[in-house]
Amino acid sequence: MKTTNRTCVITESAIRYLLLLGLGFTSLGAMVWFYVTFMARATHLP
Asked: What pLDDT digit, counting tens, does each position of 15-31 carry?
């Protein structure tokens, strides 16, 4: 029971870490995309 409980906790923490990592990368990508599009529009504006 202890081994299964330990592996369950490890997998749970790993899933949480991966979700946090994915969320961080998604927000970073969105920020970069918004910045790139904003700069492109600003440069194209007269």
From this structure: 999 999 999 999 999 99
pTM: 0.55
The amino acid occupying position 40 is: A
How far, rounded to the nearest angstrom, does the alpha carbon of residue 39 sit from its chain's CA centroid? 23
Q: Which two tokens stand for residue 46?
A: 């007269």
Read out DSSP for 1-46?
Answer: -HHHHHHHHHHHHHHHHHHHHHHHHHHHHHHHHHHHHHHHHHHH--
Domain positions in the chain are 1-46
pLDDT at 11: 93
Instruction: Specify the amino acid at residue 35.
Output: Y
